[in-house]
Structures are given as C-alpha cells and as structure tokens.
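Dear colleagues,

As part of the handover before I leave the project, I'm documenting each prediction I ran so the next person doesn't have to rerun anything. This entry is a single chain, and its sequence is reproduced below.
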Amino acid sequence: MNSRLNQQLMMAIAFYPDVLALVASMLQQHAAALGLMTPGLPEQLAVPNGVDVTANGVPLYYVAVKRRNEQFRSQMAFGKAIQEAIDATCYANCVPPLVLLRVEQLLGGYIGLTLTIGGW
C-alpha cells in the first residue's frame, strides 16, 4: 500500500468511532421501525478490521447490528429505510452524511452494514 493510501487509511480509522456513534444514535431513534436492536454502547457495533480504503481512496466502514425481527420483505426496501434513518440522523447532528453501500446477512441474526462518507 503506498503512503497516500496508508495515510487515508489512518484518517479513516480515526473517524471510525464517530461513524459508530452516528449509527448508534440512528438506532436509538429508528431501531424499532427497522426491526433492529439498539446497542448499549456504540462500540458494540464495531467489527474487527472495521475500516478499509479502496484503491481510489474511498473510506469504507463496516458495522454489525443485531436483528430483532424481519419487517421488510425486500432487501432493497430495508436498505432504503436504513439510508433514510442515517440521513435524518446525520442532518439532525449537522455532520457529513454517511452513505449505505451494502447490507449483508451475517450469522447469528446480525446484519452487516458497509458505509462510506458521502455528500449532499
């Protein structure tokens, strides 16, 4: 990894706690509507190696959330509902928006969210 990407990775790692805090805040307000569990602490959402940077320098953040039930029949509708909740939380907190790139089913009743920092 060249020094530019390594520097971008270090910057992305520094933002990971903020990303976790925003997702935890979003879940405190929207978890019931999304069929997800609310974590006690933002760190409960963290995953090992939860930060990456693509070859073109885009930061990726990985979060694991416990699912309470399946309220959405469509994966696309579920992703859209999560993105709307994230947008509302970011806007309310006057922070740069997070963009949901992917939703994955994980073992043990968890879902994995892949996020990046976007723009309005």
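The first strand starts at residue 46 and ends at 53. The two ends are 30 Å apart (CA to CA).

All the best with the project,
I.
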